[in-house]
Amino acid sequence: MSEERSRPVDPQADDAERAAESALRPSTLGEFQGQPRVSEQLGLVLAAARNRGAVADHVLLSGPPGLGKTTLAMIIAAEMSAPLRISSGPAIQHAGDLAAILSGLGEGEVLFLDEIHRMSRPAEEMLYLAMEDFRVDVVVGKGPGATAIPIDIPHFTLVGATTRAGLLPGPLRDRFGFTAQLDFYDDTALRRILMRSATQLGVRLSTEAAAEIARRSRGTPRITNRLLRRVRDYAQVKADGTVSLALARDALDLFEVDDRGLDRLDRGVLEAVCARFGGGPVGLSTLAISVGEETDTVEEVAEPFLVRQGFLMRTPRGRVATPAAWRHLGLTAPVGAPGSGDDLFS
Ligand SMILES: Nc1ncnc2c1ncn2[C@@H]1O[C@H](COP(=O)(O)OP(=O)(O)OP(=O)(O)O)[C@@H](O)[C@H]1O
């Protein structure tokens, strides 16, 4: 398990966690919380396909990890009463891998390709034809004598998922009939997810405790459910299993997730910028050394959330703490420092 993977606020999951998650997945669009626009649009697309007796258009789901792409793929298959096949871009390195998957599909099935942006180029080109004409060209032979034999494949719905829609080549993006960009969830949606998951797990959760866990979940259902499991563990060991507000706070404090969802790494980065570098600007590599982490970890794991929360700015001269960062740490910015009120923020 990597260092980041052991963070309670890591938006990614390993296989063991995915298995634990499967019990908590909503199975219908009605149960899927949040993302109201995506839900409504997708509901319409699927209902229209059902009414026509046709397979649904190909769907592209994009957004950060843990926001529900896999869950939506499962819901699409369930709503279309179709079996779901699951594969991923990294598993398809040769066009032949994809040809095998496609020719093994049944009529109307849903194929979920996670991390579709990581598929190999030849496989991607095969997918264009498959998506458009439900056909694959299998190349037989080599060199000048090679011939492409067209093979019809069943009509299917491709659900592609990517964390980086911008990395998808235009021709692939254009072949999806419906594209949904998933956004971070608001606290109301996360609270609803929590109340449902708590019922599923047999945890008695007060509404105040749910609000507290939601607030610390970084807008990500995966983190919400993980924090709930840890709070549940704490409640089972330290109390009678009932989760009150005070108990939720104690549990989350123990796991070092603060009241805005920052963990030890995030706070370490902010504290370094403020306390050691006077609020910045400080260069990425200096910052990484001062918190004892790799630059990649600081840049890819901690910073995106800190920037999104308005605690940190990336400037051409380096990282700079905002007034909100000083306030969050309970520190006062020295006069003249970024974030002190008499500088660029004032
Ligand atoms: N809208 C939602 N309502 C209820 N639960 C949700 C919702 N979205 C996600 N979840 C829960 O969050 C967890 C993670 O969701 P999911 O695996 O679908 O995310 P993902 O976007 O596919 O992540 P990754 O990109 O890492 O594959 C699951 O346990 C799922 O049940």
TrEMBL record:
Question: Which keywords does this chain's UniProt record carry?
Answer: ATP-binding, Cytoplasm, DNA damage, DNA recombination, DNA repair, DNA-binding, Helicase, Hydrolase, Nucleotide-binding
Q: Could you tell me the Gene Ontology terms of the biological process aspect for this record? A: DNA recombination; DNA repair
Residue ranges of the region described as Disordered: 1-32
- Identify the enzyme class: hydrolase
Q: Which residues bind ATP?
A: 24-25, 66, 69-71, 132-134, 175, 185, 222
- Kindly state which reaction or reactions the protein catalyses: ATP + H2O = ADP + phosphate + H(+)
- Spell out the residue ranges making up region: Head domain (RuvB-H): 259-346
Map out region (Small ATPAse domain (RuvB-S)) in residue numbers. Answer: 186-256
Task: Output the Gene Ontology terms for molecular function.
Answer: ATP binding; ATP hydrolysis activity; four-way junction DNA binding; four-way junction helicase activity
E.C. numbers? 3.6.4.-
In this protein, which residues make up the domain named AAA+ ATPase?
55-186
Report the GO terms under cellular component: cytoplasm; Holliday junction resolvase complex
Q: Which residues bind Mg(2+)?
A: 70
Q: Where is it chiefly localized?
A: cytoplasm
A Pfam family name for this chain?
RuvB_N
Q: Where does the protein end up? A: Cytoplasm
InterPro entries named in the record: AAA+_ATPase, AAA_lid_4, DNA_helicase_Holl-junc_RuvB, P-loop_NTPase, RuvB-like_N, RuvB_wg_C, WH-like_DNA-bd_sf, WH_DNA-bd_sf
> Which annotated residues bind DNA?
314, 319
What is the recorded function of this protein according to its Swiss-Prot or TrEMBL entry? The RuvA-RuvB-RuvC complex processes Holliday junction (HJ) DNA during genetic recombination and DNA repair, while the RuvA-RuvB complex plays an important role in the rescue of blocked DNA replication forks via replication fork reversal (RFR). RuvA specifically binds to HJ cruciform DNA, conferring on it an open structure. The RuvB hexamer acts as an ATP-dependent pump, pulling dsDNA into and through the RuvAB complex. RuvB forms 2 homohexamers on either side of HJ DNA bound by 1 or 2 RuvA tetramers; 4 subunits per hexamer contact DNA at a time.
Q: How does the annotation summarize its subunit structure?
A: Homohexamer. Forms an RuvA(8)-RuvB(12)-Holliday junction (HJ) complex. HJ DNA is sandwiched between 2 RuvA tetramers; dsDNA enters through RuvA and exits via RuvB. An RuvB hexamer assembles on each DNA strand where it exits the tetramer. Each RuvB hexamer is contacted by two RuvA subunits (via domain III) on 2 adjacent RuvB subunits; this complex drives branch migration. In the full resolvosome a probable DNA-RuvA(4)-RuvB(12)-RuvC(2) complex forms which resolves the HJ.
UniProt remark on domains: Has 3 domains, the large (RuvB-L) and small ATPase (RuvB-S) domains and the C-terminal head (RuvB-H) domain. The head domain binds DNA, while the ATPase domains jointly bind ATP, ADP or are empty depending on the state of the subunit in the translocation cycle. During a single DNA translocation step the structure of each domain remains the same, but their relative positions change.
Family designation: Belongs to the RuvB family.
Q: What is this protein called?
A: Holliday junction branch migration complex subunit RuvB
